Amino acid sequence: MTWIKTFDPMATPGPLRDAFLAQAKLYPKEYGQGTQPSVPAEEKILASHSLIPAALQHAFSTFGAAMAPDLPLERRHHEMIATVVSVTNNCRY
User: What separation in angstroms does the CA of 85 have from each of 11, 32, 89?
Assistant: First the structure.
């Protein structure tokens, strides 16, 4: 849970919802289903960017572009890199 005011990106139409939907299209289909469906959207990591929709779109779209299936690394390589970086940074997700 973030310690800043956050909003559910899908709660109302507008720039936040548009940014969320735009970046979501870039992610692999496996990311469409959340791993913790019981956690409210406003408490998830994406919501930490909900105050600045343009930042949300650019930050998460960058990751989505880096995961593009036409790049030379396979999905398993992306996951391995992400895991090592998370462990190195003592990050639980």
Answer: 32, 23, 6
Amino acid at 14: G
Q: Which residues of 28-46 are buried (b: 16+ CB within 10 A; e: fewer)?
A: eeeeeeeeeeeeebbebeb
User: Where do the structural domains in the chain lie, given as residue ranges?
Assistant: 15-88
Kindly compute the dihedral angle of the four CA atoms of residues 14, 19, 22, 25, in this order, to the nearest 10 degrees.
Answer: -120
Q: What pLDDT score was predicted for residue 93?
A: 64
Run of H or E including 22: helix 15-24
Q: How far apart are CA 63 and CA 53, in angstroms?
A: 16
Write down the pLDDT at residue 1: 53
Q: How many residues does the chain have?
A: 93
Extract the tokens encoding 77: 């390589």
